[in-house]
Amino acid sequence: QLQLVESGGGLVQPGGSLRLSCTASGFTLENYAIGWFRQAPGKQRELVAAITMLGSTSYADSAKGRFTISRDNAKSTVYLQMNSLKPEDTAVYYCRTTRGNMDYWGKGTLVTVSS
């Protein structure tokens, strides 16, 4: 069964850093693109960063220069390194992949940026 599990969220002060992990099971991660999304309270879910199976990356404007997405296929894990965090980065962060016509989501990890 294809499964994605996010981890690494928590409470961090403005300007701080966190590294989120998205660990896959039930499929070969290296054959799939992965996206990191986030959903803040009262807002729609939005794409933050994505990485193709060949390692090409893309970022939302809000993440450029602060966030880095990477993958370690040997560990079946995709990371999201988040630096210079701002209160507006507070959200539940999800990873997603698509196989065929199906989207697979993790359950999310909460990131709270507050002093």
Q: What would the average pLDDT be, to the nearest integer?
A: 96
Q: How many helices does DSSP assign? A: 0
Biggest pleated sheet: 7 strands, mixed
Structural class: mainly beta
Low-confidence stretches: none
What is Rg? 13 Å
The coarse overall form would be globular
Fraction of residues in helix = under 10%
The topology string of helices and strands comes to EEEEEEEEEEE
Task: Indicate the proportion of strand residues.
Answer: over 45%
Count of DSSP strands:
11
Distance between the termini: 40 Å
Describe this structure in words.
The chain has no helices and eleven strands. Strands 2, 4, 5, 6, 9, 10 and 11 form a seven-stranded mixed sheet that branches. The chain has a four-stranded antiparallel sheet with strand order 1-3-8-7, with no helix packed on it. With 115 residues, the protein is mostly beta strands.
List the helices and strands and how they pair.
Layout: E1 3-7, E2 10-12, E3 18-25, E4 34-39, E5 46-51, E6 57-59, E7 67-72, E8 77-82, E9 91-99, E10 102-105, E11 109-113
Parallel strand pairs: 2-11
Antiparallel strand pairs: 1-3, 3-8, 4-5, 4-9, 5-6, 7-8, 9-10, 9-11
Task: Sum this structure up briefly.
This protein has strands at 3-7, 10-12, 18-25, 34-39, 46-51, 57-59, 67-72, 77-82, 91-99, 102-105, 109-113.
List keywords for this structure.
single chain; mainly beta
